[in-house]
Amino acid sequence: MKRKKNTRRAFSLLELTLVLLLIGILGSVAAVSMFGRAERAKAQATRISLGVIGSSINTYILENNVTPAGIQTLVTEGYIQSGKTKDAWGRDFIYRATPDGPNEYELISLGKNPDDNLDDINYHTMNE
Prior knowledge:
It is built from 2 helices and 3 strands. The chain is mostly helical.
């Protein structure tokens, strides 16, 4: 019985090109998907940090009957740790005492893009 001689020993250039193209497309889709998840995770981490700082401000107000002068006051008096005063994008939270407003203070993160207010995260409205 004779065996057929296999003359094909390698992939053609077209086959290799198609495989590399498919790998590139799948890699691009995965990268875009992971980037979106990273931004959502940063926003969620920022909401959690805002919640901790907001609770600390509320505790400070209850114990001292006055709004703190700034977030640094909370750090100095031991209400929060010094490394917890920035959002997930590395920017300081914005804090303003507003005794005449509907809340006694504003606590805001500028979000991913500090140049617009479309992605700002406000402590008082973040759970609405």
